Structure formats: structure tokens, C-alpha cells
């Protein structure tokens, strides 16, 4: 107690000397500058500093009537403080306030912006500014979760219409980023920074390397939900010290998620998910990823019934139900939304395959391409909707930038999949068109449709159109629109037993209708080491599958598949030529995949575990380890979009689970093709050593 009093006294003395205000919350101490309101320090109750001083309290951006932007920093304002209320005034009449509250070991910041000049709009607000030392490890909820400490891998730019995909735009929430928080830690001392926003307002969940020694954590929030010229959000930002690393941070977010009404109950999963079918993913045209020169000739799996020999082969080898999950099946052109039906070759040809699958108890799934509009296919150039677009004036339904510009991003370009635009989801024409296309597939008897492929995380991008039925700046209305669309499509699909999914795992507000998705966790290699943060928080509500490995041009396949198993994912194989396997969808079939003979029995063993333990691996919650596990450190090498690199890992994967009854279990897997040792230390200090054979998985149980 004396130590705590001494610490508080010392902090207060330092604050007085540095013209700063202090806030105490359960022994944690926050220091805010009295010069400009910036966050200078936050210490835990243990006295350990978690932050470095920020130079700014916030930044914001205004748009004028022409769509031109003006960015302002807190130091452009005059600052004053009235107790816990921080106030900034600008010469143009802008008034920014931030209420600071200390509660239950955390610090809450609730901003507002008033006095927005006539003829201008508040586009986004980025505050409070929180900075960490660059020697900290950060958890970033990007593409299912990445743990990183190399902050030179991306150049920061605020997200806007042009940056919504490339550069900084990859981190838009809800979408590429599925959760609205960041965490950083070192030696078990962490800082957690989140938006406690139940409306899931779009945000750039970002980081910015400032000077090589400091990294700013950013929750850039779009402000399209204005009231009478003011932005008064109904949520706050939370900042707290905590003990641990990425798992403990994810627990904080999960505890909040469980307070939301939509997470009171788990989704009603289709019965087939309890059979744990293995996906066979393959195209029916071409022989691998869409590479130039385009080759869209039918392959050995067309007519569709030709794939039955592969379905039967792998069904027997895996002792499993199979979902045939098709790409390049569209009758228009591959990856050419929104119109995909009828299927290539006609309904009758696909119906023969559907009926053969269903007669065996197997399933039929298809990939689609989400909510984009195709003008011209880059894969099949003769496919064009340009004339229809002009005749029906469809441009009025497309997403626009602040200046009225119309472009598209994902998979868009002459060397990509198509040239086109993005549909605005507040437009009834867009919603009706998408519902009609989903309905055609559902009525036909498709079991699973990854309808929102290329809507990563189930989200969409940013629309500023002034002529649409929404504010001319992105805001929570965007999340509302996507939730309404998904609910409408899910109701239509559900009448016929079809489930929907998206590319990457679904973001926080979207998983009620998207609970089976193509998880591509390996893409996190771009910035660091993939970790199962999304599964840790949400596995009870969504059980995804190891997807087509798009973007992974090289990585140890056993590492990849065992990572997916420990992520809680259902399993997939990627068909190559003549019933063989390919290492990834992005590799041409002509490349050899020598590991396939060992991969098939591995997937059989892993899926047998999944079928044995559905209460854990389908419905259960990922938990922190109940025993300490150690194995030798090693590296995994990978190639991602051309370059080869590596990340640190260990020889053994582990994951721990709890079911609805409170029962717990753990799994440990040797992903290497040589034996290795696993040291297990129990809470009472007892030590066990397990010798794991190559590719072996063992069970771990709490001590009785």
C-alpha cells in the first residue's frame, strides 16, 4: 500500500512539473498534457510504463463542397481543460471536446466535434492518439490476426476513398480488420486500445511508425452519422494496461462482445457442419490461378460429373463427407459479379453433378465475387455489360468518392479479374439484384455459397455519393446497410437450405449470417506471424474452413494445414490435375506437389479428431493454455506475392478449448517431418515430456 501511495505521489509530482493532468483508475495512472491534451503516459498498478508521449491529441479531416480535404491537428487548436473535460477551439469555429473517465482499471475517452463550418463535412476523427515504443510487439486484428514487431512493412496513410483498399485501406473495420482494437506488449506488460462501439462504425484500425522509436496506434473513425452539424458519437474509446500478450487482449474484446445482444445466442448451424465435410476446392475452367495468358478452356472437371471420381476417391481416403467447392463455374465469366447464373454449360449439366453428390450425402458449394459490378471481364474479354450500364443509367447506383469519382479496387484491372465498379448497398436496385442472384443459386440446390468472396470480412468499402439515400460521408449507416443485405440474403437462402460465407473470417457485426468462411490466415505473413486471434474471440459463433490459399505462393503445407486445425477450422484440399492435389490455388497445376501423399492421411487424422470432438472444435471456445508447453524454436519459410521470408515459430502447435459444459481439452501437433519433444508443465509444477512422431497430434487434458 505504501508503495502505491509513493508511486501516486511521484506521478503527481512529475505531472505538476510537466504541466499535466493525472487520472487514476484502480491504481493505473494516466497522464495527459495540460499544454495540448495529448496522452503523455500510462502506467499500470505495477508502476510499469506502457506508452511513450504523443505529440498530438487527435487529427481530423474536413471535406468542402467540392470534396477537397483539409486535415487539422490538435496543435492547430487552442487548448484548455476543465477537470476531466478537454477542450480545443479552432479559429474556424470548430469545437472539439474529449471527456476522460477513469473506471475499473481503464480510461475512457468520449469525443465530440461541434461548430462544423457551413458547407463542410467532418469526414473522420482520429483520437485519442496513443503511442507505444517501437520495441513492443503488437497484435493487429488484420486478416484473422497477426503478431508483429517490424513496423517498416507498411507506409501509413489515412484511409479514404482512394486508399480504401491499397496501402492503408487493407485495415478497414469491419472488413479486412474483423475487430476494433489494437494491443501492444513486452515481457507480459500490455496496453489495450479499443473502440467500445456497438454500432460498428467504419474505422481504420491502423498503426503509424513515427520516428523509428515510436508507433502510433490509430482508430481512425468515419463520421457520417452527424446530428445538426455536430458529431456526438454514442460510444467511447477505451485505453487500459493489462497483463499478458495477444490472448489476454483478445479476452478483453471477447468479454465486451458477449455483452452485445446479437451474441446472446450462437448461430443455428446447418446439420452438415456436424459431419465435418472436407472441402475439395477446384476450378472447372483453366488450370490454376487466373494468370496471363488467360486459359479459360474447360478442364478435366467439366462436365461437372467428371469430378465424381475425385469426390469418391477422397471421400474414401479421408473417411469423410465431401463438399465440392467450385471456382470458374459461372456461366457469364469467372469472377464477374453480380450476374453469375446460369452455370457454365447450363443448369442441366450442373444438376447431374448436384444429384450425384447429394445421393452420396455430399455437398455442392460455389465461390462468387460479392457486391461488385463488372463492366468487362479481364479473363473473358468478350463478356461486357458496358452497353447495359449506359442504357439503364446504372452508374447512379455505384459507389462514389468525395468528388463524385467512380472507381473500383478489389480484383479490378486489365491484369486482374475484371474492370468495373462497386455497388452501393443502400441502393434498392443493388440489394434487389444481389438478392435475385443469390435466390437463383439457393433454389437450384446449392448447399454453400461464398457469396461475399472479395467482400473481405463480409464488409464493403466507402461511399460518398451525394445522390444516394445515405449521408455523403461513410459512417455506421454502412454497417447497417451490409447487415440488412446479409439478413435479407440469408433469409432468402435459408428457405432452400443454402448457407452463405465470405472471404477471410467474418468481422464482428457480420458473423450472425456468415458463420462458415474461407479463412486465409496465412496472408498475415505479409506483416508478421499469424496468430488465431479471431478464432480465440469468435469460434463459438463462426467455424471457418482452411480456404483456397489464395496469395500464398509457398509455405510448408504441413505448417499451413496444422495451423488451420489449431485455428479451429474445418479442412480443405485443393484439387489439381487428374484427381491429384495442388499446394495452393495460386499455383499452376503444372507444378508438382510432392507432399500430397503425406497430406491426405494427415487431413484424415485431423478430421477424425474434429468429428470426435464437435463440442470443442465446432461449437467450443478457444481458451488460454491450462498447461505450459515448450518445444524447440524454429522458423517457417514462406513466399507471399513474390518475396521469400520467414517467421519464428516452434516445432509444436498447441491449442486449448472449452465446451458449453465447462469441460476442457488441448491438442498438440508436431508439424515437422522429424520427431520432436514437447515439455508440458502443469500448474502444480509436475513436468511431462512427450515424444511426438512426425505430423502426430496428441490430446492434452487437465489434471483430475
Description:
With 704 residues, the protein is an alpha+beta fold. It folds into three domains: 262 residues, Beta-galactosidase, Chain A, domain 5 (Distorted Sandwich), CATH 2.70.98; 270 residues, Alpha-Beta Barrel (TIM Barrel); 78 residues, no CATH class. It has eleven helices and 40 strands. Helix 9 packs parallel to helix 10. About 1% of the residues have low confidence.
Key traits:
seven-stranded antiparallel beta sheet; Beta-galactosidase, Chain A, domain 5; 40 strands; 30% strand; single chain; 704 residues; TIM Barrel; 19% helix; ten-stranded antiparallel beta sheet; alpha+beta
Give the domain tally: 3
- As a percent range, the share of helical residues equals 10-25%
Write down how many β-strands occur, each being a DSSP E stretch of 2 or more residues.
40
Largest sheet at a glance? 10 strands, antiparallel
- The low-pLDDT segments are 12-17
Structural class: alpha+beta
Distance between the termini: 38 Å
Radius of gyration from the alpha-carbon trace, in angstroms: 26 Å
What is the average per-residue confidence, as pLDDT, rounded to a whole number? 93
Shape: globular
State the assembly state of the protein chains: single chain
Strand order of the largest sheet: 6-7-8-9-19-16-15-12-13-28
What is the CATH level 1 assignment of the largest domain? Answer: Alpha Beta
Going by CATH, the architecture of the largest domain would be: Alpha-Beta Barrel
Quote the beta fraction: 25-35%
Number of helices: 11
Amino acid at each position: 500500500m505504501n508503495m502505491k501511495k509513493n508511486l501516486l505521489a511521484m506521478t503527481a509530482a512529475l505531472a505538476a512539473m510537466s504541466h499535466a493532468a493525472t487520472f487514476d483508475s484502480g491504481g493505473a495512472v494516466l497522464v495527459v498534457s495540460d499544454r495540448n491534451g495529448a496522452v503523455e503516459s500510462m502506467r499500470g498498478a505495477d508502476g510499469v510504463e506502457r506508452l511513450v508521449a504523443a505529440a498530438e491529441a487527435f487529427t481530423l479531416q474536413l471535406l468542402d463542397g467540392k470534396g477537397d480535404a483539409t486535415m487539422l491537428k490538435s496543435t492547430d487548436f487552442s487548448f484548455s481543460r476543465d477537470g476531466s473535460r478537454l477542450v480545443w477551439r479552432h479559429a474556424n469555429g470548430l469545437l472539439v471536446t474529449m471527456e476522460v473517465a477513469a473506471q475499473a482499471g481503464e480510461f475512457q475517452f468520449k469525443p465530440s466535434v461541434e461548430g462544423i463550418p457551413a458547407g463542410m463535412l467532418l469526414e473522420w476523427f482520429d483520437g485519442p492518439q496513443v503511442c507505444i515504443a517501437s520495441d513492443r510487439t503488437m497484435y493487429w486484428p488484420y486478416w484473422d490476426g497477426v503478431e508483429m514487431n517490424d513496423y517498416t512493412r507498411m507506409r501509413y496513410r489515412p484511409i479514404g476513398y482512394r486508399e480504401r483498399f491499397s496501402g492503408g485501406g487493407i485495415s478497414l473495420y469491419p472488413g479486412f480488420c474483423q475487430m476494433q482494437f489494437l494491443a501492444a506488449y513486452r515481457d507480459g506488460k500490455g496496453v489495450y486500445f479499443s473502440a467500445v462501439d456497438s454500432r460498428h462504425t467504419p474505422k481504420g484500425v491502423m498503426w503509424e511508425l513515427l520516428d523509428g522509436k515510436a508507433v502510433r496506434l490509430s482508430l481512425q473513425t468515419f463520421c457520417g452519422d452527424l446530428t445538426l452539424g455536430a458529431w456526438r458519437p454514442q460510444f467511447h474509446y477505451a485505453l487500459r494496461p493489462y497483463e499478458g500478450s495477444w490472448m489476454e487482449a483478445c479476452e478483453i474484446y471477447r468479454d465486451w462482445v458477449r455483452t452485445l445482444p446479437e451474441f446472446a445466442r450462437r448461430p443455428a448451424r446447418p446439420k452438415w457442419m456436424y459431419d465435418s465435410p472436407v472441402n475439395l476446392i477446384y476450378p472447372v475452367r483453366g488450370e490454376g490461378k487466373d494468370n496471363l495468358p488467360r486459359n479459360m478452356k474447360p478442364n478435366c472437371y467439366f462436365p461437372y460429373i467428371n469430378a465424381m471420381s475425385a469426390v469418391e476417391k477422397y471421400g474414401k481416403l479421408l473417411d469423410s463427407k465431401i463438399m465440392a467447392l467450385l471456382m470458374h463455374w459461372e456461366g457469364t465469366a469467372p469472377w464477374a459479379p453480380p450476374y453469375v447464373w446460369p452455370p457454365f454449360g447450363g443448369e442441366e449439366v450442373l444438376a447431374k453433378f448436384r444429384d450425384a453428390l447429394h445421393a452420396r450425402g455430399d455437398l455442392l458449394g460455389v465461390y462468387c465475387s460479392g457486391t461488385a459490378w463488372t463492366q468487362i471481364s479481364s479473363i473473358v474479354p468478350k463478356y461486357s455489360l458496358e452497353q447495359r450500364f449506359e442504357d439503364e443509367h446504372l452508374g447512379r447506383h455505384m459507389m462514389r468518392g468525395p468528388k463524385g469519382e467512380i472507381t473500383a479496387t478489389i480484383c479490378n484491372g486489365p491484369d486482374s479479374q475484371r474492370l468495373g465498379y462497386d455497388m452501393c448497398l443502400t441502393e434498392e436496385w443493388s440489394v434487389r439484384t444481389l438478392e435475385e442472384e443469390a435466390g437463383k443459386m439457393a433454389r437450384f440446390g446449392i448447399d454453400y455459397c461464398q457469396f461475399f468472396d472479395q467482400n473481405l470480412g463480409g464488409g464493403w468499402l466507402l461511399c460518398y455519393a451525394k445522390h444516394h439515400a445515405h449521408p455523403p460521408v461513410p459512417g455506421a449507416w454502412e454497417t447497417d446497410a451490409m447487415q440488412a443485405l446479409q439478413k435479407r440474403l440469408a433469409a432468402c437462402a435459408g428457405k432452400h437450405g443454402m448457407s452463405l460465407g465470405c472471404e477471410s473470417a467474418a468481422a464482428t457485426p457480420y458473423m450472425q449470417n456468415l458463420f462458415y468462411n474461407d479463412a486465409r490466415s496465412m496472408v498475415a505473413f505479409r506483416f508478421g506471424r499469424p496468430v488465431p486471434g479471431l478464432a480465440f474471440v469468435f469460434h463459438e459463433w463462426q467455424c471457418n474452413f482452411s480456404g483456397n490459399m489464395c496469395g500464398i505462393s509457398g509455405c510448408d503445407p504441413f505448417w499451413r494445414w496444422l495451423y488451420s486445425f489449431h485455428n479451429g477450422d474445418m479442412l480443405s484440399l485443393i484439387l489439381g490435375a487428374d484427381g491429384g492435389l495442388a499446394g495452393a490455388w495460386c499455383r499452376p497445376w503444372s507444378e508438382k506437389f510432392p507432399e500430397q501423399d503425406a497430406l491426405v492421411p494427415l487431413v484424415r487424422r485431423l478430421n477424425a479428431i474434429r468429428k470426435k470432438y464437435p463440442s470443442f472444435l465446432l461449437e467450443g471456445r478457444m481458451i488460454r493454455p491450462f498447461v505450459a508447453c515448450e518445444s524447440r524454436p524454429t522458423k517457417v519459410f514462406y513466399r507471399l506475392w513474390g518475396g521469400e521470408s520467414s517467421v519464428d515459430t516452434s516445432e509444436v502447435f498447441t491449442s486449448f478449448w472449452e465446451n458449453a459444459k465447462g469441460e476442457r481439452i488441448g491438442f498438440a501437433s508436431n508439424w515437422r517431418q522429424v520427431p520432436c519433444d514437447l515439455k508440458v508443465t502443469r500448474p502444480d509444477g509436475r513436468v511431462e515430456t512427450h515424444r511426438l512422431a512426425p505430423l502426430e497430434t496428441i490430446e492434452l487434458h487437465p489434471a483430475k
